[in-house]
Specification:
The chain has helices spanning 13-22, 65-71, 80-91, 104-119; strands at 26-32, 37-42, 47-51, 61-62, 95-100. It is α+β, with helices and mostly antiparallel strands.
Length: 120
């Protein structure tokens, strides 16, 4: 009798993006009084920084490996983090954290430190 092999259900990027939105893992860090924003997607290993321009998706950016290897390499149009920020904005399902402009550099250093520790 032949063994039956079940294929593992693979979660698609679209599903992962929607799961992130549903779990409120999308954060908008807003700085006052300048109005600058940094968007992040909370991941299992670290937070990923996303720059999403709804008027020009070619100007978007994500700090994840998928973006650097597959999006920039041309094999996929966007990583799930970019999709998640787009969906969160469309559905108005994200958290906003307000900071003083004086805290911008510290937050950016913290995010970059988290990203670099994930790489190594």
């Amino acid at each position: 009798m032949a063994k039956k092999y079940q294929r593992k259900h693979r979660v698609t990027r679209t599903q992962k993006a929607q799961n992130s939105v549903d779990e409120l893992a999308i954060k908008r860090h807003q700085f006052e009084p300048s109005g600058r924003e940094i968007w992040t997607v909370v991941g299992a290993d670290c937070d990923f920084m996303v720059e999403y321009d709804p008027s020009n998706s070619s100007q978007s950016f994500c700090s994840c490996d998928d973006y650097h290897f597959r999006v920039l390499g041309g094999s996929i149009p966007e990583c799930y983090h970019l999709m998640a920020v787009r969906k969160a904005r469309e559905q108005n399902k994200f958290s906003t954290i307000v900071f003083s402009d004086d805290e911008y550099e510290g937050l950016l250093r913290g995010l970059l430190g988290d990203i670099f520790s994930h790489i190594s």
